[in-house]
Amino acid sequence: MSWRKQGDSGDALVKAAKAYIEAHSMEKFSLKKLSGTLYINGSYLLRQFKSHTGQTLLEYHNHVRCEKAKALLRETEMSVSEIGMAVGFVSSAHFSHVFRKMTGRTPTAYRDEK
Fold first, then answer.
1. Choosing a second label site near 82 at 20 to 30 A (CA), which of 30, 48, 88, 90?
2. Where are the domains of the chain?
């Protein structure tokens, strides 16, 4: 990723980090891999991302996964467990926990509200 070509601003760095996370949301989050891809110090990336977005990188990663899960809950008949796996969670329990933390509802309750 060539975020530096866009300038050396934190905005370009955050934009590049978001693009990477969105493209790799199904993978386990790895600060080392992300910072290596962007050729930037991990601690610096963490600080810049938090100061520009108000979220940690992991919170954003989970947000992206939950948004994808919401779409699947609305648009498919896949089970909650299948959706959790489809968006990159290793277990349905972890998926349900993160989804509830991010949305205030369980995946099943979210689906029932559609």
1. 30
2. 3-54, 60-113
